[in-house]
């Protein structure tokens, strides 16, 4: 028998009133129900961000997309949201969007080791995204 915490039960009911504890433990179910937008995040946790907070989070999420499983979401302490370490891992700081003149283009030197570099200067990380450091993307 699987037992869920009170917070997990609330989130499961908000996703689907008929969610059984056994389904909650299924990683495929978790991935299918991953949170990818701020409105769903707010609804499932029963919180709402202020207008300025939401704008900053949306700007950050546009650059660093969200994908939070319901289980991971259930670990967030909504009483201390802004200092909660799980929340801070889920939402990068808006300060990450600020690029300073002295910032390194590739601070971890990953581009040089990336196996999919192309002659155009683009390194493809997935079928839908690319990091271009020079040249043009294929098809342009």
Automatic annotation (TrEMBL):
It comes from Methanoculleus receptaculi. PANTHER family: L-LYSINE 2,3-AMINOMUTASE AQ_1632-RELATED, LYSINE 2,3-AMINOMUTASE-RELATED. Keywords: 4Fe-4S, Iron, Iron-sulfur, Metal-binding. Gene3D superfamilies: 6.10.140.1170, Aldolase class I. It comes from the Archaea. This is Lysine 2,3-aminomutase. Transmembrane segments: none annotated. GO terms for molecular function: 4 iron, 4 sulfur cluster binding.
